Amino acid sequence: MNKLRLTLGIAAIAIGSFAAFSFAPASNLNEETTGEFYVNPNGSMGLPVDPAHPCEGSGPLCSQEYNIETGEKTDNPALIKNGVRRP
User: Fold this and answer.
1) Which among 8, 18, 43, 66 has most CB atoms closer than 10 A?
2) What is the residue range of the signal peptide feature (predicted)?
3) CA distance 38 to 44
């Protein structure tokens, strides 16, 4: 009887642990929600920035960070680049 009670107790703990992790929210650490994009002449989000063609020099707004889901700029000063895209 003690062995049965111990087995049922262990099974209950295992099922409870499984259920707790099954309903836990999924992690979104690997999902990118922002990205660096070139700026179109009208100020909208253009193509993703290509490291082979960076923005150089001074001049108009060249690239900045945008929210991928909404297409809105994030105004992150570290990723706002002026200049001209190098061909």
Assistant:
1) 66
2) 1-26
3) 9
